[in-house]
Design brief:
heterodimer; A: 831 residues; 5-stranded parallel beta sheet; 27 helices; B: 132 residues; mainly beta; 3-stranded antiparallel beta sheet; 12 strands; globular
Amino acid sequence: MKVVVIGNGMVGQKFCEKLLSKGIPDLQLTVFGEETLAAYDRVHLSSYFAGKTVEDLTLQPVKWYEENGIDLRLGDPVQEVDRLKKNVTSFEGLSIAYDYLVFATGSAAFVPPIPGVDKHGVFVYRTIEDLNMIWRHAATAKTAVVIGGGLLGLEAAKACLDLGIKDTHVIEFAPRLMPRQIDEAGSEILIQKLKELDITTHTGKNTAAILGNETIKGMIFTDGTILSTDMLVISAGIKPRDELARACGLTVGPRGGIVVNDHMITNDEHIFAIGECALHNSMIYGLVAPGYEMADVVATQLAGAAKQFPGFDMSTKLKLIGIDVASFGDPFISGDEARTIVFRDNHRGIYKRINFSNDGKELLGGVLVGDAEAYNMLLQICKNKMALPPDPMDLIIKAKEGSADAGAGVVALPDDALICSCEGVTKSDICNAVTEQGCETVDAIKKCTKAATGCGGCAPMVKDIMVHTMKQQGKLVRNVLCEHFGYSRQELYDLVKLRDLHSFDEVLDTLGEGDGCETCRPAISSILASLWNELIVKKESATSQDTNDRFLANIQKGGTYSVVPRIPGGEITPDKLLVIAQVAKKYNLYTKITGGQRIDMFGAHLNDLPSIWEELIEAGFESGHAYGKSLRTVKSCVGSTWCRFGLHDSVSYAIRIEERYRGLRSPHKLKSAVSGCIRECAEAQSKDFGIIATEKGWNLYVCGNGGSKPQHALLLATDLDSETCIQYIDRFLMFYIKTADPLTRTATWLNKMDGGIDYLRNVVVHDSLGIGAELEREMQLLVDAYQCEWKNVVETPELRSQFTHFINAPKEKDPTVQFEAMRDQKKAATW
Amino acid sequence: MSNQNWFHVCSVQDMPHNGGVCVKYGEHQIALYYFTHRNEWYASQNLCPHKQQMALSRGMLGSQQGEPKVACPFHKKTFSLKDGHCLNDEACSSIKVYDVRVKGGEVYIDVKDMDQQAMVHAHRQETVSPNI
């Protein structure tokens, strides 16, 4: 069977996947794509500006098409369809015959006929190429305007934010934002939330013309007002790409779109249309899930089975600019046909509305803005016509949305409830994956059923169903460390302390089974270090440390190590700088200033580490623990000693904090900073614990995080004196060390904590658990037990002797280590 | 077994417990492991095939469903110490494993395959430029 697909967008690609899965013999599949890139994720387009690459967004690499025998022709759009001869001719002149032709041409951005839209600096928001052009232009832009307050428009506004444009405006012709999804009150909350992000919304506004000579300078509206801007992104809707279909005589709708029946067949029985170019029942579906369903309808029929497209629910949940927005069923129904309950919290920016039948039995639809946690459950109740609670208000206002509730919720779902609408996975598919395929992790279920691999919105529900099904089978669902330990880290911490265990083998033989692994060894080693603070490189302990801890240095490409001496608060004397320079020259090390205000020396041979440290320690340095899951640096600004704005001496306080917690082993690395005033030059709010000077003392922030998923620290307590601030940090850190999962930073730990920052504040500040004094005592023990690990190694011959590459040639270094020159220093040879 | 060639490495008391060391045999680097918890000895090539790093001797020992394994410290690829196959990445090549013998407190590795075998790190140049 010869199948030709015109268009390689998300739906076109999904169609290929679906068709391949049917196993049709003698299938010859040819795909023409207009863009030069293989199909990519257009739904998450704005993440391109937030750091995702084209590869990240690409659905399947070109290799995938090759491996599956698909003839993919990118950058070569079809120019002509000859329906009589049943063949297509491409731009490059290729002529291919088909038995069945599938239009998946998608849509283009709709550009309203405003005078001046052709000016430089006016863009649409549709393809990666559009994004690249916006990117280049945005470098010099200070102001941006987006026309269109719908889904895509708000995505485009987020893209402008991500590009660093501070002053962004959204223009919407309708009297409210997202007019298809949410109501007036929901829109008001959304506008308020956008305002907090410096996005100004103008509703009920109609653009009259675009101002400027060659380049856009501003816009004038029909009400006579003017708005200056450096760039404009038009995202006012979509226009089906039906020009080719029109040219070959297929029926198109009055306002565009290739007319199809319930089988997705056009007026030519050999030609289908799917996705945003298809007009089904007078409707263009601008969402990806219905497009995927259409792809399946066509693939199923080509495989010889029957399937129809029943129309699709337009329920949707999105995270727009970090704000949850969802609507389901009929969000707007009101008046005599339905009753409505509305919950509105202007303070937190939350709006929830549910519409239900007059008899109170059936949920008809609703809107959620600001908090859409209940969306999955509400959608299921609505779609499956499930019974409502006696007081329907309970659906949107709960004291706390605990997992017990969610668990109870999934029980009531019928087996055929569609959980993942992107991939068409039902509740029973997920249950079967657990009971018959033995899937016991969300990842396993994703692999087995493809659920939650599309937009990912159903992942929490998939997990709830999985956990519930496992419980039903009598399987214990526990957060255990690995196959060798049937306990969580928190349980192990308590057990190791209770049984007074001091080595990995003791812990393994008392509490575990088997021989350990690369997951439990470092986790247990970390617990032992947090509990006893004994030397981690003793013979019985060293090999259960991650390699960085085993050799007290960070392993780098090529197998050499880097060396980071502690420079508390980032303060260092010229003499000590000289020592670092001498050591680096002597051992031929690459030097770099780190983000934590220290100096990192790279390219050290394992054999040289003890001698390097001997010289550093001699000059008064100590280990910086850059290799450990432990306190790294306490960064500081220069503070009141030099700075004309400084309120307190942030450097002295940072040094005090760093010296107090140096060497403290924890579930993950810890970073801190002290800023001398509200200008926050030390960036304390991005640290695990950050301290900012106020007129009256210090403000303490906790659980911030840079890295791959940045998160601001939250204010724990204000205007503290120096002693109380340390007391709270003692409690906070010990509580974290005792209760967090392995390799969990404080931000993630807090995110998972029931009650969040309020609960944490109760424990740390108000001592609600009555453990404050105990936590402080435990911390003091660790502080008192501190020793410089490197000093210990340097002074102990049998520890020193571990730092050799060859056991039978201890003086020889690894001969395979290789460097290349770069900017007057060296770098590791590329692998 | 015929024509085994036992190469003396070190004494048992020189070895770390539950961990590995690197052994120099001519141009070859061999990782030798003393899995104290199982009272077992293993040896393999030192080169991790994933990113060509001389690192397996510095890896962590463990077991998976009873199968002894070593985890590369670079990216945590794990390899069976029994037959050398990669346990957590089907696409990753296997490592060579060698027999180990302990006699009279001394440790030996069977190097009979070593001389026929292409140099494990043949893709690399031998020398280190001293002044860059």
